[in-house]
Amino acid sequence: MGGTVASAAGILIGSGLLGFRRKEEMEGASIVIKKVDLMAEVKKYRKIDSHAHFGLAGATNLSNLNYADRLGIDRLVISKPMAPGSKGLPEEFRACNDAIISAVKQYPDRFFGQLTLNPTYRTESFEEIKRCVDHGFTGMKLYNHVKINSPLFYPIIEKFIDLKMIILMHSPIGKARIKYNPREPLNISIPEDFVDIAKRYPEAMFQFAHTAGGIDWEDACKALQHSPNVYVDLSGSNNIANMVEFALRYIGEDRLLFGCDSSFYQGVGHLISAKMTEAQRKKIFFENYNNILRKIGKHVD
Fold first, then answer.
1. Is a pLDDT exceeding 50 seen at residue 113?
2. Does residue 23 share a domain with residue 68?
3. pLDDT tens track for 65-99
4. b/e string for 69-102 if b means 16 or more Cβ within 10 A?
5. What 3-state DSSP class applies to 230?
6. Most buried pick, 5, 228, 241, 252, via CB within 10 A?
7. Could you count the other beta carbons within 10 Å of the beta carbon of residue 159?
8. Angle in degrees, 0-180, between the axes of helices 243-250 and 217-224, rounded to the nearest 10
C-alpha cells in the first residue's frame, strides 16, 4: 500500500530523476523527500465500507473489525449472499440473513445489514424483506439467481423504492470475465442490465459491485455514465493504475462509493493513491453512502 500512495502522499523527487540527464549532471544530484505519516493520512478520513461480507471467504465479525480499526473504517455494510451455484431456496436465504441479523445485533454501532433473497420465490422474499427491515437492515445484496433487469425482480425493486433503500447486485464487471471465468453463471448481471433497469426505475437506487474486481472496468464505467441512479463501488483486489481517476471521469464524484469486498488494504489504497481533491476523497470515503443512509434515517452522525 505504501508503494502505491507515494505520489499522492507528497514525495518530491529531484529534477535529475525526472528525465534523461548527462552523467556529469547527475553527479551530486539529490533526492528531496517529504516525510509523510501514511496512516495519519489514511485515518483522517471517515469511512463507510459499502461492500463488506460476513461468513464468506473467512470473513468474521472480529476479522472485519480488526481491519476496520486499523484503517479507520467507521461502519461496514455487511451481507451474506447465497453461494454461486446454490439453488436459492427460501431456507438458504433465510439462513444467510440470520447470520447477518446476529452480526448486526452483536455490533450495532459498526455494522449495517443487507438482506439477500431469491425473487423467484415472491411470497417468501416479501416475508423476508419485512423480517429483515424489522431488524434494522438498510439494503439488499444479491448475487445471480435472477438478473437485475428480470421481470421477476420488478416487484422487489418497487418495494425497495418505497423503502428508499439501495440494491447492491454482484456483477462480473464486464462480458469478458463471463467468457474467461467459469465461476460466473448465465444469470449474472452485466453493466448493460443495470442500464436497462435503471432506465425503467429511475426512482430506484442500484449499486454496481466492485469496479476493481474484474477486467472490464473501463467498459463498465462507460456503460454506466448516463445512469444517474446507479452508484458504482470501487471495491476489489485489482491494483490497476488510473482506475479511480477513470471512474471519476465517467461516473463522477457523487456516484462513487468506497468499498473493500474484503480487500481492505486495496480498498483504502485505491482512494489514497488516486489523484483527486480532498473534498472528492471525503465524498467517496464517507459522504456519498451516508447520504444514501440519510434517506431512511440511518445515517452516521
1. yes
2. no
3. 999 999 999 999 999 988 777 899 999 999 999 99
4. eebbbbbbbbbbbbeeeeebebebbbebbebbbe
5. strand
6. 5
7. 16
8. 20
Q: Which three cell numbers stand for residue 53?
A: 461480507
Is the same domain home to 14 and 160?
no
Give yes or no: residues 50 and 92 share one domain: yes
The SS3 call for residue 58 is coil
Closest C-alpha among 83, 23, 15 to residue 53: 83
Q: Rounded to two decimals, what is the model's pTM?
A: 0.86
Q: How far apart are CA 175 and CA 160, in angstroms?
A: 27
First to last CA, the chain: 29
56 and 22 in a single domain? The answer is no
- Amino acid making up residue 274: A
Same domain flag for 179 and 276: yes
If DSSP codes are grouped into helix, strand and coil, which group holds residue 225? coil
Identify each DSSP E strand in the chain by its residue range. Answer: 48-53, 75-79, 111-115, 139-142, 166-169, 205-208, 230-233, 256-257
Helix 217-224 and helix 191-200, axial crossing angle in degrees, nearest 10: 20
The DSSP 8-state label assigned to residue 34 in this structure reads -
Q: Are 31 and 14 in contact (CB under 8 A)?
A: yes
